Amino acid sequence: MTQQIAARPLKFFGEGISYLKPLQSKGSLVVVEGPDGSGRSSQIDLITTHLEAAGHAVITTGLKRSELIGAGILEAKHKLPLGKKTLALFYAADFADQLEHKIIPALHAGYVVLADRYIYTLMARSNVRGLARAWSHDLFGFAVKPDLVFYLDVPPEELFHRVFQKYGSLDYYESGADMGLSDDLFESFVLYQRGIAKEFRLMESKYGILRIDGGRPIPEVNADLQKRIDAYLRSIR
Amino acid sequence: MAGGRNHRGRLIVVEGIDGSGKSTQLHLLDKWLRSLGLNVFFTEWNSSDVVKEITSKGKKKALLTPTTFSLLHATDFADRYERNISPLLEAGYFVLADRYIYTALARDVVRGCTPAWVRKVYSFADIPDVTFYFSVPPDVAMDRILEGRPKLKYYEAGMDLNLSNDEYESYRIFQTRIVEQYESMAHKDRFAVIDGTLDIEEQQNLMRARVAKLIPPSRAKPASALSQKQETGAV
Q1: What pTM did the predictor assign?
Q2: Which residues of A touch B (CB under 8 A)?
């Protein structure tokens, strides 16, 4: 580490985690949100390279990656379709596992934690399926508040092309196929992504989410993000 | 919690620590309601097929933090709730639940989760028409369970709480704390308290007398299928 960062108490969205000793963060939690095809992973790779070159210890984390139950989530999707609340709680359990076993220890140790999606995506998915926004919020009362949150905003029509080019098909849930929005997959995808984007707009001011125009070329988006991250890291030094 | 009386069916819950006799009593109630020709659905805690595999994998590894543990049980509950409990209540069933959200409240709070948070997580669940709480001194319940000195599971014994290195001692302390939580809820959550040290038949008669009030008049029959004894008062 080239910089000495002052330890500060971890902040939570709600009740926090009362059985943990009061915890300090000597690191930073930076979240990159955005739909599939918005360029999240490319940006996270670039940011990681840049921060590591600058001497920061970086760890990346994402949804569906917990060693405990990550695989189970995928298996469950292929069996019987899960209900909205069940799915929301399932993802929350997986997130909690990563938060306590990975994110909090890393922050405590002084890492820059780059999160490839965070609770905002989970809330948006629940809310767009009709769950009460207040419930989705309350569910994550144990989650650590990030230091920076970016949302890569890309129009749904553009996303469709990017996703199709990359994977050759659309993800079942990411296209809202479980919601019966339309028999036409393209239309379903666009409607679903519009719904998600709307949820993010509704969350923006409440959660301090910074909207970034993700429709630009990768280097341009990266310069934008990096400038803001560097400024933040300077401010806490 | 969501309004409890909107559904057309009836939700009947039993709560209490292991060894309190609640499952035996619910089993007998189930038989009785079915004998009256009512549509009955029985559901028990932590039994969703979808969630079971994942939960047991995590439990084996002894890796679960209290929050993860709580959310996995909430996932299990939600799956049973969305798949069975809620639609069957809509359809007019008598839904019998061996443990309900109060089990989560008691256990998760003992493990250190914030009560307000656990309440909010489960706020989608219908309030039961009646919640029978089987009150027994922890020692009595534990003697029933530990009679055969069974091998206690890690989380069952509360070993994750570091209460004691001895699993039986840990279990005793854990169960005692759960009883405290139940007792703190009894009034607020309107538990119908059953003295779990009474004879099995006596307890069942008390339950049936209470449940008889929930049966639509067209289906009601005398609530004394089990014993010849005179019914004594409401629960």
Answers
A1: 0.89
A2: 14-19, 68-69, 72-73, 75-76, 79-80, 82-86, 88-90, 92-93, 96-97, 99-101, 135, 138-139, 141-142
